[in-house]
Each structure stands twice: as structure tokens, then as C-alpha cells.
């Protein structure tokens, strides 16, 4: 199965501000997402596409994605025809509500990849779930089998979800517990990578509230967070990264378990804690995550 890789942070930049792309690439985010959708007024769409295309090529091989417009917007096909090239890492597709949306974007991308002599399925897709229908259909969406294979990752968009339900977003995020849980569980059940959480938009200056929001998402099974300001990147990177102590303990767990297993024992205690196969697998994930973030560790 193709994967997009670890994304602790994904930083949005409006395509109409190409100068900010240069700055965003130095903010420490795992990926920069140039936005052609909500951040761009309709009269500026064509200009924004060209700006995004140039920045993607200029900064190759840096990790850059583009959020295109939704399938039914009238802009999606033009977006793809403009920005798909070998320097692009993938796209974010907004307003995904059904498996049919995944099949349609897959076919559109295959056509663009073929026209540009790119390997079929080479571009990943981050599917943005941001409505009641998307949340309700999430297991079907991410269980969709694509041929040829294409990396597919979920992200949650709370702003449009709240608008769809007619509710207000709060600082403590109580109203988001259900969609977050459903999305994270569905991704795990479908064998996909953990999803990316919604941006924190209540107060960009309140980094403590941002950290609390990120911790809630991590506890529910998210691997990272969308960011709408460079100041959000550092705190989110920290929260979604294992600490040196966690990595060291995970290695101790794996080493102790492998020794025990070689002696015919499938469970043991380490520092008073019970260790069995699920605990070991979680420890191995922590080690892999740490190595992907810092290969020198």
C-alpha cells in the first residue's frame, strides 16, 4: 500500500501570496499546502493556479501539496491540468463525501499523470472530510480500492463541518469529539495511515489552547494537525513527536520482549508494567516514527 508518510504538521499558504510559500517552507512543517480553494476569490482562480504551479516547480524537491477546488466547483479540472507535474507531492481534495468522489479524483489524476508521462498513481491524495455526509460515509470512503494503487490520507475540516451542522466551535472542542473519533477509527479499520486533524482557529495567539486541542486529537488517534499560521507548527510538531524518553523506553520494551520471546515466553513485566504483543507493536510504531522524524536517532 502506498503511503504519504508522516505528517505531524501541514501548513496552509494562500496561492495568491506566493511570497509566503518561501517563508512557509522554512517554518518546519512536514508539508506546505498551497491553497487554491477557500483562500482564493473566484476572479483570482486562474492567476492563483499559475502561481501555485510555478512555486511547486521552483521548490522541487521540497514537500509541497496543493489544495485544489472541490469536484463540483467547476474549477477542479482546471486546477489539476495546471498544477499536476512531477515536482508535486500530492493534492488535498476538499468536501469529500463519498467513495464516488475518491474514484472520480483518482481517474482525473490518472489522466493528468498519463499526459505528463508520470507513473500512474504517483500523486497522493489527502481527502478532506468536512460535512455530516462525509463523516457518516468515512469508512466507505477510505475502504475504496484504487487500481493502480494511490496513497490516500484523511484530514478533518471542522469549520465547514460546524457550518453544515449549524453549531459553533468551542475552545474545548467538545462538539468535535464524535467526528474526530469516527474518522480516526475508520482510518484504522480501513488500514490507512492515521488522519490529520483540523486547524485550530479559535484564537491564533492562544498557543496553550492549540496545544490542548492537539493533545485531544492525538489521544483519539490522529498523527498530526493542519496549521494556518507558522506559529502553530512548532507546538504541533512537538506534541505529535515521540520524546527521547518515549523512544528509549520503546526500545527497551522491544529488546526485552524479543529476548523473552526467543526463550518461549510471550509476555513479561518491565518496570512493573505488563508487556505483550500489542504493547510491543505500539513500541515499534514509536521507534519508526522517531526514525522518520530524526533519522540520526
List the helices and strands and how they pair.
Elements: E1 9-14, H1 18-24, E2 31-35, H2 45-58, E3 64-67, H3 76-83, E4 90-93, H4 99-115, E5 124-129, H5 132-136, H6 138-142, E6 152-156, H7 158-165, H8 177-189, E7 196-197, H9 207-220, E8 224-227, H10 233-239, H11 244-262, E9 268-270, E10 273-275, H12 277-293
Parallel strand pairs: 1-2, 1-8, 2-3, 3-4, 4-5, 5-6, 7-8
Antiparallel strand pairs: 9-10
Helix pairs in contact: 2-3, 11-12
Description of the molecule:
This protein has 297 residues and is an alpha/beta fold. It has 2 domains: 9-239, Alpha-Beta Barrel (TIM Barrel), CATH 3.20.20.60; 244-293, no CATH class. It is built from 12 helices and 10 strands. The protein has helices spanning 18-24, 45-58, 76-83, 99-115, 132-136, 138-142, 158-165, 177-189, 207-220, 233-239, 244-262, 277-293; strands at residues 9-14, 31-35, 64-67, 90-93, 124-129, 152-156, 196-197, 224-227, 268-270, 273-275. It has an 8-stranded parallel beta sheet. It has a two-stranded antiparallel ribbon with strand order 9-10. Helix 1 (18-24) links the parallel strand 1 and strand 2. Helix 11 packs across helix 12 (277-293). The protein is globular, with a radius of gyration of 20 Å. The relative contact order is 0.11. The mean pLDDT is 95.
Amino acid at each position: 500500500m502506498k503511503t504519504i508518510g508522516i505528517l505531524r504538521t501541514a501548513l496552509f499558504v494562500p496561492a495568491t501570496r506566493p511570497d509566503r510559500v518561501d517563508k512557509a517552507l522554512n517554518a518546519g512543517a512536514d508539508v506546505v499546502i498551497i491553497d487554491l480553494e477557500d483562500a482564493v476569490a473566484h476572479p483570482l482562480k486562474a492567476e492563483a493556479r499559475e502561481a501555485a504551479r510555478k512555486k511547486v516547480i521552483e521548490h522541487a524537491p521540497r514537500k509541497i501539496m496543493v489544495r485544489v477546488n472541490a469536484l463540483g466547483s467547476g474549477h477542479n479540472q482546471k486546477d489539476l491540468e495546471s498544477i499536476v507535474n512531477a515536482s508535486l507531492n500530492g493534492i488535498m481534495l476538499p468536501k469529500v463525501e463519498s467513495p464516488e468522489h475518491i474514484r472520480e479524483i483518482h481517474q482525473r489524476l490518472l489522466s493528468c499523470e498519463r499526459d505528463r508521462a508520470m507513473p500512474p498513481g504517483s500523486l497522493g491524495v489527502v481527502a478532506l472530510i468536512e460535512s455530516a455526509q462525509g463523516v457518516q460515509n468515512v469508512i466507505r470512503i477510505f475502504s475504496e480500492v484504487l487500481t493502480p494503487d494511490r496513497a490516500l490520507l484523511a484530514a478533518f475540516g471542522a469549520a465547514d463541518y460546524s457550518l453544515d451542522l449549524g453549531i459553533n466551535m468551542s475552545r474545548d472542542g467538545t462538539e468535535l469529539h464524535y467526528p474526530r473519533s469516527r474518522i480516526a477509527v475508520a482510518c484504522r479499520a480501513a488500514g490507512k495511515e492515521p488522519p490529520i486533524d483540523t486547524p485550530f482557529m479559535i484564537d491564533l495567539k492562544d498557543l496553550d489552547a492549540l496545544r490542548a486541542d492537539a493533545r485531544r486529537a492525538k489521544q483519539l488517534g490522529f498523527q498530526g494537525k493542519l496549521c494556518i499560521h507558522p506559529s502553530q507548527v512548532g507546538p504541533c510538531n512537538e506534541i505529535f513527536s515521540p520524546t527521547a524518553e518515549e523512544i528509549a523506553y520503546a526500545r527497551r520494551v522491544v529488546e526485552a520482549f524479543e529476548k523473552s520471546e526467543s526463550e518461549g515466553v510471550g509476555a513479561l513485566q518491565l518496570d512493573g508494567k505488563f508487556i505483550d504483543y500489542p504493547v510491543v507493536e505500539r513500541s515499534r510504531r514509536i521507534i519508526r516514527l522517531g526514525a522518520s522524524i530524526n533519522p540520526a536517532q
